Amino acid sequence: EVQLVESGGGLVQPGGSLRLSCAASGFSFGSSDMSWVRQAPGEGAEWISAIASGGVVAYYDDSVKGRFAISRDNAKNTVYLQMDDLKSEDTAVYYCNMGPFWGQGTHVTVSS
């Protein structure tokens, strides 16, 4: 059974940082590209970042480029999203995604 479990969300002030983690199991993690997708309140889902299976190639939406960094540890079956210089518009539920599979999401609230 494929499982994706996100953690690391919370309340942070504008300009602050958070590091999200997604622990994966039930599939060949080291052979799988991984993505982060977010959904703000009242909005549709927004893809924000992806990382190839080898961890070298990464992609970012313009909205987070230069502020967020995706990485992975294939030995730990975990993908990370380092989020710096957070803004109020980053408030959303953040989901880990692999193909048709999704985690339960972790809430990020950016507010003073």
Shape: globular
* Number of DSSP strand runs: 11
Largest sheet: 7 strands, mixed
Low-pLDDT residue spans: none
Span of the ends, CA to CA: 40 Å
Helical residues, percent: under 10%
Task: State the order of secondary-structure elements, H for helix, E for strand.
Answer: EEEEEEEEEEE
Number of helices: 0
Beta-strand share of residues: over 45%
Q: What's the gyration radius in Å?
A: 13 Å
Global structural class: mainly beta
| Mean of pLDDT | 97
Structural description of this entry:
The protein is 0% helix and 52% strand. The protein is built from no helices and 11 strands. It has strands at 3-7, 10-12, 18-25, 34-39, 45-51, 58-60, 68-73, 78-83, 92-98, 101-102, 106-110. The strands form 2 sheets. Strands 2, 4, 5, 6, 9, 10 and 11 form a 7-stranded mixed sheet that branches. A hairpin with a 6-residue loop joins strand 5 (45-51) and strand 6. The termini are far apart. The mean pLDDT is 97.
Q: Which descriptors would you attach to this protein?
A:
11 strands, mainly beta, 4-stranded antiparallel beta sheet, 112 residues, 7-stranded mixed beta sheet
